[in-house]
Amino acid sequence: MSRVSFLLMMAVMASALYLVRTQYESRSLTTEIDRATSLARNLETENDRLDVERRAQATPLRVEKLAREQLHMRTITPAITQYATVSGGVAVPTASAEVRP
């Protein structure tokens, strides 16, 4: 009987140790999931903020203002458009919109 009770006691001890280890791993994984969720929430907030900032930076009025002030560009008018003539006498615009591969 003592041999059987010793084996049962060892089985109970092994089961208890396994239970403690499983609970520890469960708590660790739960903590890791919470951290990952928090990080995902922070990244989503940052992404939304950057998206709003990007939209604010790309407004047509802002782009036009930067083009005028920093690049010294001006709006196109027929008064400043220059045309080049080909030997056949046909007027061709100097800038071509054709895209070549």
Description:
By secondary structure, this protein is mostly helical. The protein has one domain. 65% of the residues lie in helices and 6% in strands. The chain has a two-stranded antiparallel ribbon. Strand 1 and strand 2 (91-93) form a beta hairpin. The protein is rod-shaped, with a radius of gyration of 37 Å. The model is unreliable at 96-101 (pLDDT under 50).
Describe the structure concisely.
The protein is mostly helical and 101 residues long. The chain has helices at residues 2-57, 60-69, and strands spanning 83-85, 91-93.
Protein traits:
rod-shaped; 101 residues; mainly alpha
- The oligomeric state of the chains shown is single chain
What global shape is seen?
rod-shaped
The biggest beta sheet is recorded as: 2 strands, antiparallel
Mean pLDDT score: 86
Elements, N to C (H/E): HHEE
Task: Tell me how many strands there are.
Answer: 2
Number of helices: 2
Overall helicity: 55-70%
Q: Helix/strand/pairing class, anyone?
A: mainly alpha
Radius of gyration: 37 Å
Low-confidence stretches: 96-101
Q: Largest sheet, order of strands side by side?
A: 1-2
Number of domains: 1
N-C termini distance: 91 Å
